[in-house]
Design goal:
CATH class of the largest domain: Mainly Alpha
CATH topology of the largest domain: Serine Threonine Protein Phosphatase 5, Tetratricopeptide repeat
Oligomer: single chain
Largest sheet: 6 strands, mixed
CATH architecture of the largest domain: Alpha Horseshoe
Number of strands: 13
Strand content: 5-15%
Distance between the termini: 48 Å
Helix content: 40-55%
Low-confidence stretches: 1-18, 121-138, 262-275
CATH superfamily of the largest domain: Tetratricopeptide repeat domain
Radius of gyration: 24 Å
Number of domains: 4
Shape: globular
Amino acid sequence: MAEIAQPDGERRPDERSDAEAFEIAGWTVDPSTHRMSLGPQTVRLEPKVMRVLVYLASRQGQTVTRDELAGAVWCGTVVGDDAVTNAVLKLRKAFGDDTGAKVIETIPKRGYRLMAEVRRAPLSPLDTVADEPGARTASPTIAVLPFRNLGGDAEQEYFSDGITEDLTTALSNTGWYQVAASHSAFSYKGRTVDIRQVGSELGVQYVLEGSVRRMGDRLRVAAQLVETGSGRNIWGNRYEGTLADVFDFQDQITESIVGTVEGMFQRAEGERIRHKRPENMEAYDYLLRGLSHMNKLTPEDAKTALQHFRKAIEKDPSYGRAYAYAFWCYRRDVQLRGMDLSPEEQAEAVRLMEAGLQADRDDPIVLWQAATLKSYFERDFEGALALIERSLAIDPNSPRAWNARAQIHSFMGHSETAREHAEHAIRISPRNPTHWVSYTNIAESNLQDQRYQEAADAAGKALQLNRYGVMAHLALAASCVKLGRIAEAQAAIAQALQLNPRLTVSGLPALFPIARFRNLESYLDALRKAGLPA
């Protein structure tokens, strides 16, 4: 992130609120009321999203860089690329332009260009609207570092990790914080680091750190909130009780941080949607044990994880998240190697998905996991996107949800949108080891756009993080054929066939939902030339 300086004597965008209305793509845009309308349909935009639209409209047909947009709209406030990306994504959604083809075009590695005609331009690029009364200029940013396990039993490490994950989700779900993704924060596990360094590397203002000591059924949790700029401890507390009190501790920690940090910003709304608590603490324990295996990516660990998730469901049949992680075990195998499951296994995965949604439709993890399964198993992309939108409305900071969104758009042939979502997932969680998914999505999007060198580069990054992904190997192979690197393409095909010997060119659309890929025939032809059996 970088601070964009404001030139001396230049008017701030929020110094005037009398920008004229204008028409674009059939819509009438009124910056003074933050609204745009098309017939009876009216959409209200956030003030800064409207500013982005006004600025782009004032430069219709011209390329506007991200830095230029940040400087004009955020006026010296420190913002990341994701702030600009989010604003553009919201504009595309408002215009019904999710493919990014009609209204706002992305210029790779540069910025954006407004393609639609503007019939009545604003008075000037800076002639934009004021923030609403009480609106914040920026959201507080926070990271939850891995809580230390003080119990002396290494096998209890999963429990302290689980509490860290839950606190990250709870803070994100308040809707008022930009929360560093847990995988980025977990890169500091077991290390002694300077809080100022963490703040600089993750781009956060605050860090929550603490410890967990579990002794049988007894539990002690300590937590403290540190300001990264000064290293000052601004809040701390200790909680003691039984294992059944763990969720109360998490709520108290979250509420304390909300109150403490909001005292420095604007007062926010009270509570947001929280994921449903398990009725049985043994179910929670089994869930955390399963996650400790699932994150290791190997097929053997996935089987062990599924056993733990099934035990969690047995202990608490109403625990939605346990169902989500159980069908995740099936879905990830398909994601890695293709639809190679038996009809019975496919039916069981769908049953678990439906049970999870029935148990808890307000858990963002259940929602994005179900969306991904729908796209792979049922090829219901529209239904999957509806679930993703609901998931991101609850937790907008989840890189995995953004990756799922990217994946679905890629399957639909919306390559530009897919690439933007995947890049956004990387920006909000730069150290996340699951970004093999992001880079695979980027590789597939670039391949669809016939940007072969960029596709090969992204596929290589995906395989560095996870060598088990068939689609990354295939993307690398096809790209290398197009680049004339035949030996490298053949090696990639050999690796893919080791992972799934049933791979064929003709059978690929049945294994993976790629039937709507742009330039599909060119892709399949490249795989033939690389040596994939017909």
